[in-house]
């Protein structure tokens, strides 16, 4: 593949993949034009290709031209502390609140609030527990997988994405939906880091919490055999 080494060098230098793809297309087109010009000038195909490559510039020169433009580098490359340190817990918090929003809307619009309690029919209880389980098992692991995928795509080392996954796992955002015994009104929805919920966590949630932790850490396995630029 032409410019394959250049592609890897640019990605490892933090240049956004979309800019790398565009740059390589432009180089391919320019190299083809230079080669054709040399052939028209009377050089055989082999010499024409050599002369065209010399006119285009060395790989070091082509790389330097891109790395000299900081705006082409990804935010993850320019501020990894932000992307892999600060944003993951905020994203996890936002994701859980968005997941809980439909439940709050249904309770409000369907008139389920009676004083300080929630009169929830069976159908709503099943739906709420489904949202609870899906959120706990999917949201954290999905965010962790996105961090790892972004890091691998940009040829980063495992350090920063590993930190991001650890932050999400240690934060352990968890949703707990509790309803009273059958025939009684009440119930509540709680979203908080698992460590803050341990004292009043329903015993049935411990396996769910363990599965959540395992699935969140699982994407980090994709970094085990990868060695980026540092």
Question: Could you characterize what this model shows?
Answer:
The chain has helices at 4-12, 17-40, 45-56, 59-67, 75-78, 80-109, 122-153, 159-171, 194-197, 206-217, and strands at 113-114, 117-118, 173-178, 188-193. The chain is mainly alpha-helical and 230 residues long. It has two domains: 4-72, no CATH class; 75-223, no CATH class. The strands form two sheets. It has a two-stranded antiparallel ribbon with strand order 1-2. A two-stranded antiparallel ribbon has the order 3-4.
Largest sheet: 2 strands, antiparallel
Residue ranges: pLDDT <50 for 5 or more in a row? none
Strand arrangement within the widest β-sheet reads 1-2
| First-residue to last-residue Cα separation | 25 Å
Count of distinct strands: 4
Count of runs of 4 or more consecutive helical residues: 10
**Class by SSE composition:** mainly alpha
> How much helix, percentage-wise, in residues?
55-70%
| Tally of domains | 2
Sequence of secondary-structure elements? HHHHHHEEHHEEHH
Rounded mean pLDDT is 85
Q: Over the alpha carbons, how many angstroms does the gyration radius reach?
A: 27 Å
Shape: elongated
Strand percentage lies at 5-15%
In short:
With 230 residues, the chain is mainly alpha-helical. It contains 10 helices and 4 strands, in the order H-H-H-H-H-H-E-E-H-H-E-E-H-H.
Task: From the structure above, extract its key features.
single chain; 230 residues; mainly alpha; 2 domains; two-stranded antiparallel sheet; 4 strands; 7% strand
């Amino acid at each position: 593949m032409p410019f394959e080494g250049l592609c890897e060098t640019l990605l490892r230098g933090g240049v956004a993949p979309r800019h790398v793809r565009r740059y390589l297309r432009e180089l391919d087109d320019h190299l083809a034009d230079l080669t054709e010009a040399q052939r028209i000038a009377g050089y055989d195909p082999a010499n024409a290709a050599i002369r065209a490559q010399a006119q285009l510039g060395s790989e070091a020169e082509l790389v330097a031209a891109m790395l000299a433009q900081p705006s082409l580098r990804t935010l993850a490359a320019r501020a990894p502390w932000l992307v892999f340190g600060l944003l993951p817990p905020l994203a996890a918090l936002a994701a859980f609140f968005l997941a809980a929003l439909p439940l709050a809307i249904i309770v409000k619009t369907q008139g389920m609030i009676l004083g300080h309690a929630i009169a929830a029919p069976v159908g709503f209880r099943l739906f709420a527990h489904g949202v609870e389980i899906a959120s706990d098992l999917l949201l954290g692991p999905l965010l962790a997988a996105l961090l790892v995928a972004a890091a691998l795509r940009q040829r980063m080392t495992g350090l920063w994405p590993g930190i991001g996954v650890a932050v999400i796992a240690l934060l352990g955002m968890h949703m707990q939906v509790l309803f009273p015994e059958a025939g009684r009104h009440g119930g509540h929805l709680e979203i908080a880091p698992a460590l803050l919920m341990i004292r009043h966590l329903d015993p049935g949630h411990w396996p769910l919490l363990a599965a959540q932790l395992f699935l969140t850490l699982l994407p980090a396995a994709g970094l085990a055999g990868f060695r980026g630029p540092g």
